[in-house]
Structure formats: structure tokens, C-alpha cells
């Protein structure tokens, strides 16, 4: 009897730092060896000849079964979303537990745990803070963080969920005390409101005006402010879904000054365009998300920011709203709805890695190691999942994706395996496709067939880690966060 349960044999192993020809030995749920010609006696051999062996993807920003204030939820169940993840090579997600006004966090988080445990993909949460009242800040945030949810998410815009600058400061301070990172949706609430009112008064209500209501400048301003206030509190933050070079420059400037500020972008800002929202009829609603997709110059600028390392994570921001179903999803308010009443977001769990591989590696914009850093390693590091996730190393979870770098695929919705009835990437041709996904040692997807058992997901509790420790640099050396609740 050999020492491995499974051996992935004959592939090219890629991590965030290396590309080597090697076998991977798996014992139980764990990688136990990497080397040439590992003994295979008694082991199941998984042939990786001609394939790349990559760490399973980590998607650190996706909305799954998220509840709306009216009690309805985003369409994908955790089980369906897990299938979509595995189909696209992703084996871990960080999704959201959403607090609404007046709610304590304990029961909110418990409900999302209950839901997520029914899926197959390993998960953690960002705790959304919509209402940082005293008990939430004083008692709940420390408890949530101690339970392993080591990131808080805030919106600086959206009517029902935004927090103002003073509230943002309270959340930053609470995160600093508890040892969590804060992730930020950065757009200027009042400027969007002002522009929106003008557009509606002028009768400009079609989906394409969604982009007019939130031009880049309002994202740049909010990014600048989010960073400045985080500097004031000395609290590490990540700016979510950066849509172009202007907000990316704000992040680069902060990084140049040594601040702990990170940025992510998403495939929609690399391959979609504001013009997509101007398709005939209601079709443009398929592409309505926030920030809005922009144009070629912005996606070129984003690739530059990615190559420079300013943007070091690409998430999906998967937000499933079907397009064709009457009365729900994008049609919730009818097909004549003004842009203000179209649910925001695009689905993308399964499309994320193939699009980034194709647009990045296959088109020569980035190398293989950068692809791994963008799609798994950096998210695992920033959010405290490393080295269990995000790499191929002895002791890491055996989460692997066996990737065919030459396979050409035209993206269609049936390949996405989500509950949503469309993909904004329909018809996009990609080179490079996941052939086998292995999650904690089990083959969970082969040739598009997902075989994982619902209920096999594990919660990924995240303990304290150095990367998100505050720098200890405060204006005047005065730590207001130690005083202000
Ligand atoms: N924007 C978000 O901030 N979240 C979900 C979807 C979207 O478009
Ligand atoms: Zn957002
Ligand atoms: Zn989001």
C-alpha cells in the first residue's frame, strides 16, 4: 500500500511563484507531497498529462443566497452556486452576511451559516454592516470577528444600505479594535442621487443611463475618501470592484505612501462595456452593475494596474438576477423600469477564471503565476485563508483545478451551472478551460459534470494574521478608535 489516496500525475504545477513539472500526492483532504514520479501503488491516479495543475480558485467577493430587506433572496442557492464554482475551477468563496437596519449580528450570521452549510464549496463571510449602532459596535463586531469572520463590508452608496462618513469611521475603528479588514463599495452617494434625479427629470431612464448616474469621477472621489478616512483610523481596507485607472491611481498613491490599502477588480470591468447597457429594448439590463462597466481605455488601464500590482485580486462579484423570468430578477419591476429600479449585478462564478485566463494568460497580458496570484493566492493571503487555501504545498487543502490551457470554448449560459438564466458573457470565446476540479481531495467536477454532495461545504474560520495588522501610524499619534465606540 502506498502512502497516498490519490496522485495527480504528469501535470505542470503552477503556484503564485513557480511553474514546475511535478506530481501531487493527496492523503485524505490534504496535499502531502509534490515531486517527480511519486509512488502510485494503491492510489487512485488522476492523469494530468498536458494540463496545468493550479490551486483551486478563491473567489473572495460573491453574493450567494443574500437576503433582501423584503425577505426575498438572490436566486442561487448555495448548492447551485457551489456547482457553478466547481464548474469554473473555484473551490473557496467569501460571500456575505447582510445586516439590515436595527438588526443584531448574531442571528444574521447564524442564518447565513445555516444556508451556506447546505452547499458544497468551502466558505467564509464578509459581515456587511449597514447599521453600526452601539451594541453592534461594542458587542457584536468583536464576537463576529472572534468567530472567524475577519472582514467587514460597508457600502458608501445605495439608499437602503449606505453608511455615512461618521458611521464609516465607527466601523473602521471597530475593525481596528477587533483585528478585521474592512472592504468598501466606494461610490459617492449624494452625487449619484443628484445625477439620478436630474436624469429622471430629463426623461433619461433607459438602462444605459445607469452608467451616466455614476461616472468614474464619483468612484474616484469615494475611493479617495475611503482611503483617507482609513488612514485617519490606521485601519487596513480593500476597495472592491475597481472599474478603471482613476480609482486605481488613488490606490496606487496610497500604496506608495505605505498605507495598507488593496484593490480588486472583476471580469465585468475587463470585458464588458458601457455600450452593452445600450443594447436594444431592455437587453441592456443584463449588464447593469455597480460600478458600471466602462470602456476600452478603462479596461486597458486596469490591465496596467494589474500588471503593476496595484490591483492584485480579481473576484466575480457574482450577483445573480435572472433576466428572462417575469416578475423576478432584472424584470422585478417590469421591462419598462427606469434604470434606478433594475437590480444591480451580474452573475460570474463559473466565468471568472476562464475569462481571466483567456484575457490574461492566453492573450499574453500576464504570466501563469500572476494568474494564480490574481485568482487564488492573493485573496487567500489578504483574507486569512493562506496557506490552507491559495497554494499547492504540503499541508494545504487538496484544492486543485486541472486546467487545459489550449481548449477553446464559447461561453454559453448552460456552461455556467448557476440558477441565473443568462450570462453577460454569452458568446465570448475563451482559450483555457477547467477540466477537473478537486476540492479537499475529492474530484468534484470532471468535464463539466459536478458530483459533489450538497452539505459537504466547510466553514473557513479565519484567525488573526499579520497582513491586516494596523501600521501603528496615526495623525498626531492619537488613537481615537480606543476611545470612540
Ligand atoms: N454591485 C454591488 O456592489 N454589489 C452587488 C452587485 C453590484 O453590481
Ligand atoms: Zn459593491
Ligand atoms: Zn458585491
From TrEMBL:
Gene Ontology molecular-function annotations: hydrolase activity, acting on carbon-nitrogen (but not peptide) bonds, in cyclic amides; metal ion binding
Domain of life the protein comes from: Bacteria
Cofactor: Zn(2+)
UniProt modified residues of type N6-carboxylysine: 153
Residue span(s) of domain Amidohydrolase-related: 52-444
GO cellular component, one term: cytosol
Processing after translation: Carbamylation allows a single lysine to coordinate two divalent metal cations.
Keywords of this entry: Hydrolase, Metal-binding, Phosphoprotein
Function noted in UniProt: Catalyzes the stereospecific hydrolysis of the cyclic amide bond of D-hydantoin derivatives.
PANTHER family the UniProt entry points to: COLLAPSIN RESPONSE MEDIATOR PROTEIN (PTHR11647:SF1), HYDRANTOINASE/DIHYDROPYRIMIDINASE FAMILY MEMBER (PTHR11647)
Annotated family: Belongs to the metallo-dependent hydrolases superfamily. Hydantoinase/dihydropyrimidinase family.
Name under which the protein is recorded: D-hydantoinase
Annotated source species: Acidisoma cellulosilyticum
Amino acid at each position: 500500500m502506498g502512502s497516498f489516496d490519490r496522485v495527480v500525475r504528469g501535470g505542470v504545477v503552477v503556484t503564485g511563484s513557480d511553474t514546475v513539472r511535478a506530481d501531487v500526492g493527496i492523503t485524505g483532504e490534504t496535499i502531502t507531497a509534490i515531486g517527480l514520479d511519486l509512488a502510485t501503488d494503491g492510489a487512485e491516479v488522476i492523469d494530468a498529462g498536458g494540463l496545468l495543475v493550479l490551486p483551486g480558485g478563491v473567489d473572495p467577493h460573491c453574493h450567494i443566497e443574500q437576503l433582501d430587506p423584503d425577505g426575498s433572496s438572490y436566486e442561487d442557492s448555495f448548492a447551485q452556486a457551489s456547482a457553478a464554482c466547481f464548474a469554473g475551477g473555484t473551490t473557496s468563496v467569501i460571500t456575505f452576511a447582510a445586516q439590515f437596519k436595527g438588526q443584531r449580528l448574531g442571528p444574521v450570521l447564524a442564518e447565513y451559516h445555516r444556508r451556506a452549510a447546505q452547499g458544497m464549496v468551502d466558505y467564509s463571510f464578509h459581515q456587511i454592516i449597514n447599521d453600526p449602532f452601539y451594541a453592534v459596535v461594542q458587542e457584536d463586531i468583536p464576537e463576529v470577528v472572534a468567530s472567524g469572520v475577519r472582514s467587514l463590508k460597508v457600502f458608501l452608496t445605495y439608499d437602503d444600505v449606505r453608511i455615512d462618513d461618521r458611521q464609516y469611521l465607527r466601523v473602521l475603528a471597530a475593525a481596528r479594535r477587533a483585528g478585521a479588514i474592512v472592504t468598501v463599495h466606494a461610490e459617492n452617494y449624494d452625487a449619484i442621487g443628484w445625477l439620478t434625479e436630474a436624469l429622471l427629470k430629463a426623461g433619461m431612464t433607459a438602462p444605459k443611463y445607469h452608467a451616466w448616474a455614476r461616472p468614474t469621477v464619483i468612484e474616484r472621489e469615494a475611493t479617495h475618501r475611503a482611503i483617507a478616512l482609513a488612514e485617519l483610523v490606521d485601519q487596513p481596507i480593500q476597495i472592491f470592484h475597481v472599474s478603471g485607472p482613476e480609482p486605481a491611481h488613488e490606490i496606487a498613491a496610497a500604496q506608495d505612501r505605505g498605507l495598507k490599502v488593496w484593490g480588486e477588480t472583476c471580469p465585468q470591468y475587463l470585458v464588458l462595456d458601457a455600450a452593452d447597457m445600450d443594447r436594444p429594448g431592455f437587453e441592456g439590463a443584463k449588464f447593469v452593475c455597480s460600478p458600471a462597466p466602462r470602456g476600452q481605455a478603462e479596461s486597458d488601464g486596469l490591465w496596467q494596474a494589474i500588471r503593476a500590482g496595484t490591483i492584485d485580486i480579481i473576484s466575480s462579484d457574482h450577483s445573480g438576477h435572472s433576466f428572462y423570468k417575469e416578475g423576478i430578477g432584472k424584470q422585478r419591476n417590469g421591462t419598462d423600469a427606469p434604470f434606478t429600479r433594475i437590480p444591480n449585478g451580474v452573475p460570474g462564478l463559473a466565468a471568472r477564471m476562464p475569462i481571466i485566463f483567456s484575457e490574461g494568460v492566453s492573450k499574453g497580458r500576464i504570466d501563469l503565476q500572476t494568474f494564480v496570484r490574481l485568482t487564488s493566492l492573493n485573496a487567500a493571503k489578504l483574507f486569512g485563508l493562506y496557506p490552507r487555501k491559495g497554494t499547492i504545498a504540503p499541508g494545504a487543502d487538496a484544492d486543485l483545478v486541472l486546467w487545459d490551457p489550449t481548449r477553446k470554448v464559447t461561453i454559453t449560459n448552460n456552461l455556467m451551472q448557476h440558477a441565473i438564466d443568462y450570462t453577460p458573457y454569452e458568446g465570448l470565446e475563451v482559450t483555457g478551460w477547467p477540466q477537473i476540479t478537486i476540492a479537499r481531495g475529492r474530484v468534484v467536477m470532471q468535464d463539466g459534470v459536478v458530483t459533489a454532495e450538497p452539505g459537504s461545504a466547510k466553514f473557513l474560520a479565519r484567525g488573526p494574521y499579520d497582513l491586516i495588522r494596523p501600521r501603528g501610524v496615526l495623525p498626531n499619534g492619537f488613537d481615537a478608535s480606543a476611545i470612540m465606540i
